[in-house]
Amino acid sequence: MATPTMDKVEAEASASPYITVTFRIRRFNPEVSAEASWEDFRLEIDPKERVLDGLHKIKWELDGTLTFRRSCAHGICGSDAMRINGKNRLACKTLIKDIGPEKPITVEPIKGLAVHKDLIVDMEPFFQSYREVMPFLVTSGNEPTRERLQSAKDRERFDDTTKCILCAACTSSCPVFWNDGQYFGPAAIVNAHRFIFDSRDEAGDQRLEILGGQDGVWRCRTTFNCTDACPRGIEVTKAIQEVKRALITRRF
Amino acid sequence: MSDTTLGTSGTGSPDGASLYDRDHPAPIIEPPRQRTAKSPGTRARGNFEMYGWLFMRLSGIVLVVLVIGHLLIQLVLDGGVSKIGFAFVAGRWASPWWQAWDLGMLWLAMLHGTNGLRTVVDDYAERPGTRMWLKGLLYTATVFTILLGTLVIFTFDPNIR
């Protein structure tokens, strides 16, 4: 004899959106062990939630020692790039239902940078490359009293590369960077591209000089890993090729 | 909700006590050839890499013609591989055209392959010493092969016994 109220409760229970998902996380804690190891966490979660929500749930309810970076949690700050199911993504832009929650979801730190703890890597080499390409406007002469105007067409030229959030998903997906950290990496080239092709900027030649050297764009093997990894959909490999083309047409 | 640990996690020594603690953390695992604060000073500039890259593209196009032509003549046309002998080679190298063809093929193929291997060494060899030795070996082999091949093409004597 079910009352209508009980019916409703039962229906809600059977239509629960929660599923059981296994998170397989690459843990490293130098204060405990010199080795990194995999650890599994099983949790009930709505598949429409993001991987970041799963990590939060683990940290807040299961294991408070789990360490990862995140700031805005909405795909803008670029703090939570990690290797999820073998592919570099932002944890805050990856829905659990999209990456096959029937199987364990692997979460690793991004490759090619020194791991400090769990999912936290040393970003300094990455930012060092970024600083070296001079990612700022360089001009000569007197500063205008109003903004520096630019035609819509000139702005369009480098529009794609203005979207970069410096999450390092591209650079840490690059096989050349994995094996040789001296390579500038896609992210630095993308941010150089943003100023090289800016009609208002005057240091394009200097940047091309930097990127034309031994560790610059010529080390790119066009594997397109960076384009696949970019959470902002920047055509990274295309930008690198455009810098190569600019280097060649400057000479010939 | 439960968690299970896979494999050996944590403790570094068999008796369960860890070798590492807050004051004595384990060394961080560094990736190969990581960039450090000193790296920018040693950054090589210049256009060598650009010319290397361009050479690969251009020599590749020329090599397609040279190598496919070579294979057709040697293996397919006019009797195929069975016709090749000392007399056939001697006859071909009597003509400056085929001398130039083979010389071009030798130089381009050797330099193309060497440049390719050089980038492979740059990409994969991690220690500076390994890089130096591998490249030294590579350049020695290249110079030897090119010089020997060139010598043979120019001094070939069809009347040799």
TrEMBL record, chain A:
Q: Which UniProt keywords apply?
A: 2Fe-2S, 3Fe-4S, 4Fe-4S, Iron, Iron-sulfur, Metal-binding, Oxidoreductase, Tricarboxylic acid cycle
User: What is a single Pfam family found in this protein's UniProt entry?
Assistant: Fer2_3
Domain 2Fe-2S ferredoxin-type residues, every copy: 30-113
Asked if 4Fe-4S is a keyword of the record, the answer is: yes
Recorded metabolic or biological pathway in which this protein acts: Carbohydrate metabolism; tricarboxylic acid cycle
State the EC number(s). 1.3.5.1
Q: Which cofactor does it need?
A: [4Fe-4S] cluster; [2Fe-2S] cluster; [3Fe-4S] cluster
The record places domain 4Fe-4S ferredoxin-type at 154-176
PANTHER family with a match to the protein in the record? SUCCINATE DEHYDROGENASE [UBIQUINONE] IRON-SULFUR SUBUNIT, MITOCHONDRIAL (PTHR11921:SF29), SUCCINATE DEHYDROGENASE IRON-SULFUR PROTEIN (PTHR11921)
Regarding protein family, the annotation reads: Belongs to the succinate dehydrogenase/fumarate reductase iron-sulfur protein family.
> Which protein is depicted?
Fumarate reductase iron-sulfur subunit
Query: What is the originating organism of this protein?
Result: Streptomyces physcomitrii
Q: What is the lineage of its organism?
A: Bacteria, Bacillati, Actinomycetota, Actinomycetes, Kitasatosporales
From TrEMBL, chain B:
Location(s), subcellular: Membrane
Q: Which superkingdom heads the taxonomic lineage of this protein's source?
A: Bacteria
- One Pfam annotation reads Sdh_cyt
Per the record, which residues fall in region Disordered?
1-41
Q: Which residues cross the membrane?
A: 54-77, 137-156
Can you name this protein? Succinate dehydrogenase hydrophobic membrane anchor subunit
CDD domains for this protein: SQR_TypeA_SdhD_like
Major location category of this protein: membrane
**Entry's SUPFAM superfamilies?**
Fumarate reductase respiratory complex transmembrane subunits
Q: Where along the sequence do coiled-coil regions lie?
A: none
InterPro entries, sorted: SQR/QFR_C/D, SuccDH_FuR_B_TM-su
- Low complexity bias locations: 1-16
Key words, A-Z? Heme, Iron, Membrane, Metal-binding, Transmembrane, Transmembrane helix
